[in-house]
Every structure is written in C-alpha cells, then in structure tokens.
Amino acid sequence: MRYVENAPRFPFFTGKGGVGKTSVACATAVELASHGRRVLLVSTDPASNLGQVFGITIGNLVTMIPSVPGLAGLEIDPEQAVEAYRERIIAPIRGLLPEMEIAGITEGLSGSCTTEIASFDEFTRLLTDDSEYADYDHVIFDTAPTGHTIRLLQLPGSWTEFLSTGGDASCLGPLAGLEKQRATYAAAVATLTDPARTRLVLVARPQPSALTEIERTFSELTAIGMTHAFVVINGVLPDRAGDEPIASAVRAREAAALSAVPATIADLPRDVLELKAGNVVGLDALRAFFGPDRAAAPAADGAAVPDLPDAPLAALVDEIERDGRCLVMCMGKGGVGKTTIAAALALALAQRGHEESAFLRTRARYEIAQIAHVRALADRVAIVPLLAEEPIGVTRLSALTGAISQPAA
Fold it and tell me: Can you give the residue ranges of the CobQ/CobB/MinD/ParA nucleotide binding domain (predicted)?
C-alpha cells in the first residue's frame, strides 16, 4: 500500500460516511504496530466504533489494545472533553474568586462554542503536545464523515486568524491563556500543512458520490495548505467474485466510476482494496485486511433466516400522513442511505399534495446538493440548508420506492 509507505507521524483518514474509513484506519494501525512502530489510533467521530472493531471498550482515555503490542486507542468524546476543558480553565482560579464569579465563568463555558472548542482543544493537544504523546511514532486519526472533518481541520487556521484580529474569545477561557492558545493553534497549523508530518488519506468507494466527496474535501483542504494526500478506493468487487449478471453489472458500474475520477484527485497516488466477504471486526480480519479475501463469510450452522418485515416505503408514507403534522428523523450509521430515504419521504409527501410543506433537513454536506432538483418537481419541498451546487434529477428517488406517491394497498 503506497499510502502506508514512509508514513508520517499524523495520517488522517477521511471520506464519505460508510466508505470504510474506520476499517482502513484500524488495519493501518495494526500493520504499523506489527512492524514495531508505536501507534496511537484516535477517533474524532462522535459516533466512534473503534471499540467495536477491536472488541474492547475504548473511551476518552488512552487504552492499550490487547494482543497488539505498541498499539493504543483513544476516542474523543465531546461531553467528556467539555468537562475536562472546563476544569482546566476553572481549577486555577477556584478559591481565588467569589463563587458568584466562578458560577458566571462556568455558565459562560456551557455553550455550543465551548463544546466545539473543547473537542478541538483535545485535537490540537494531540498535534502539538510533545510531552504527553512523545512516545508514539504515529498518531492516526480516524475522522468523522467529511463535513465534520473539514471543519475540524480548518479550525486551527480560523482560530489563529480570529485571535490575531482581536476577536471575542470568551469561550476560549480566561484572557491570560490566549497567548498560549494562539501559539498552540499556530503550531497545529504548521503541523497540518507540513508534508513531512501530516498525510491525508482520502477513502472512497468506487462510486461517483464518494469520489466527488473526496474531491471536494481535497479542494477545501488544499486551500488551507494540506496538499499531501493519497487516495484509497475501498470495496472494489474482485474478478474472482464470478461473472454472473449482477457481479458483471457491479464491476461495470465501478469501472465507469473509476474512469471518471474528478481531475483534482486523478493524479494523486492511489491504492485499491478489494471488497471483503464479511465485516472487518477483530484482529484476524484486520491483520488480513490488505491481502486477498479468499473465503466467503462463514454461515452459522443451522442458523435460521430472520423474518424481516417487507413493506414498501409507501406504507411508511401512509403512516406519516395518518399522524398529521410531525417531525420525521432519519438516523443511522454512515453510508446506509439516510439522506436518500429522507429525500424520498419528503418528495412523496409533497407529491401527495399536502397544503403544508414537507421539509428535508440535513447536514451541510454535498449529497443535499445532489437532490436539490426536487424543488423543480415539487415546490412544497423546502430543503434546509440548500447548497448552490449543480442539481441532478429525482428519477432515482422515485425509482427507489416504485410509485411512492401512491398510497400503499
């Protein structure tokens, strides 16, 4: 794997939800540790599943990974990070100021700004604290889906500029600490933009949306000086999967996507990883991750096939209609299709001619731009936020459910 060769101290794995960032990051950490490197694997994703992959509990404290000498894990938990950050700010002045003043400072450190800065503070300490993390040869970051990662990586430069222009930094803590923080953020910027210390690993599936996502990520991070990047195409169907119609169609679709890689990332060093037959969980799977997957996923002997519900999505639309005006929240693991389902539901409700608007609310990510064309078909669908990107049609949304606008029989 080219992206593993001469790995710098800080590799960052990023990409669209569900492309396999965590699997690739964990396998990379195990691979480096197996060669005698000391590795700290850090998740900046609030929905981290590092512990699930390794089969242990990993929290906001550095945790050694059993059976992998030299490897440790850490999950940055926003709530715990806020508590630790608040205590670091208040502890030195507790007992020196009246309780009323302490209460006021505590309240000032309770907003969303503090939550963001607390997580960011943990992140910058990992980049700049040579005393606490000096023992590690590599600190690998398994990041949240793209939008969160871009924000996180842009923050050092944003806060450095903010402080340099005299901005209101009340959520950063007492003014006496600003000079130290300014130096810390500047050091973080220097680390992130240094190719000798930092490497971006852009992970994607062989799918147009995932490739477009990493192209956007690379473009935005290039603007802040992060230019040293590698591309990993994960989950490519191998030839030995057979030549039956479905396999052939999948390979043709993947080949078409890879032949149309966006120009911005087309010349970046690229590695290709095969689709695995089963979930990448446990050390055996991680150690075998970079080799060919010769065996199919084993089936449990005599295991019964679960009786899963098989109802059209239109039935869910019927149920939402019966409930009247309500809030519908589409949630799930990254990459499972939350945005697609939310868009299909909003479109179906609008197509049924309701007086009230059907709102599609989503995070500010590229996928929402791809479904913005629903407005042209049904002006009762309001998209918040609506990004100004080139829209595509709604054919695939309607095809997802069949005649979704028709009530279920």
Answer: 328-354
